[in-house]
Specification:
Distance between the termini: 61 Å
CATH class of the largest domain: Mainly Beta
Radius of gyration: 27 Å
Shape: globular
CATH topology of the largest domain: Immunoglobulin-like
Structural class: mainly beta
Strand content: over 45%
Number of helices: 1
Helix content: under 10%
CATH architecture of the largest domain: Sandwich
Number of strands: 23
Order of helices and strands: HEEEEEEEEEEEEEEEEEEEEEEE
Oligomer: single chain
Number of domains: 2
Largest sheet: 7 strands, mixed
Length: 302
């Protein structure tokens, strides 16, 4: 009787292992990445690449990355909420938390310099996390043929620009009325082992002038990927200043710092400049959000 129970126990365990293996196999197979790009493009020209990610119900942190052959530069177009990191020959789309849609499409523009020619292979990779384990799905390989420039291109003669008529009298300067100055109250520090404080170089700023926003990050034991973003009021533009090894972007009204690896210092500061336009006035508030990974799970606090 004991022998039969032992055999039954091992049989059940075997079926469980087979079921777990099939689940992972099917789940991973459900994540697919396809690329769509033209068959040809001219040297010194540009083209767009669409990447469709069928992610099923994958959520949380993820990254799409693609490296390009020498002689190409790349610019992100459609982001789907991702933070973009790029250099001359690569691009990274990074999500602290993926969009809820099961299928997302991102895109970027690639420019070939004048020395590139012939067939060029493009291949990317989608990396994500399932049950605290890193998974990856390769994009379907794609090839584009770059047609070379003529051996001796002849520049078309351009007529000289017409000279502007000389002014015979000085024009009176039109009076300029400045919009009301905006006031930005400082955000209070968050009291916890991991917190961020904010300070401003001035509390009141006039249009077309700028102030510096400094963020002091006490990272505690947090390491690796992190993102710090602050939605800005309408009529305000921003420019990165001190980034401490991260990247800064200003898009969709948000100032955003992203680090693939946080600085090793337990306390560090970053800063950016904001400049109000003539449409901004009155008291405005600044409040941000810090996002990071903990055991491959996206964590945030305001």
């Amino acid at each position: 009787m004991k022998k039969k129970l032992k055999m039954l126990k091992y049989t059940v365990l075997l079926f469980n292992l087979i079921g777990l293996f099939m689940y992972h196999l099917l789940f991973q197979a459900s994540v697919t990445v396809t690329q769509n790009l033209p068959a040809t493009a001219p040297a010194a020209g540009s083209f767009e690449v669409d990447v469709t990610i069928n992610k099923s119900d994958v959520s949380g942190f993820a990254k799409f990355e693609e490296d390009f052959p020498k002689g190409f530069t790349v610019t992100a177009l459609k982001r789907e909420g991702a933070t973009i990191l790029s250099s001359d020959n690569d691009i990274r789309f990074i999500w602290a938390s993926l969009p809820s849609a099961s299928v997302i499409t991102i895109s970027f523009r690639v420019t070939a310099d004048s020395t590139v020619s012939g067939a060029q292979a493009f291949s990317g990779k989608f990396l994500y996390v399932v049950n605290n384990e890193r998974q990856e799905a390769d994009a379907t390989p794609a090839t584009i043929t770059i047609t070379p420039l003529p051996a001796n291109p002849v520049a078309a003669a351009q007529p000289p620009p017409a000279a502007a008529p000389a002014d015979t009298a000085a024009k009176a300067a039109a009076p300029v009325t400045a919009a009301p100055a905006i006031t930005v109250p400082a955000v209070q520090a968050i009291s916890s082992p991991l917190f961020v404080t904010q300070s401003l170089s001035a509390s009141t700023v006039a249009p077309a002038t700028d102030i510096t926003v400094t963020l002091m990050v006490h990272r505690g034991s947090v390491t690796g990927f992190a993102k710090l973003e602050e939605p800005l009021p309408n009529g305000v533009v921003a420019e990165g200043n001190d980034m401490m090894g991260g990247s800064f972007t200003f898009a969709d009204g948000k100032a955003k710092f992203v680090w693939l690896n946080l600085p090793s210092d337990s306390v560090f500061s970053v800063s950016y400049k904001i400049t109000p336009t003539s449409t901004a006035s009155g008291e405005q508030s600044l409040a941000g959000q810090f996002s990071y990974l903990q055991n491959d799970n996206a964590m945030t606090f305001n």
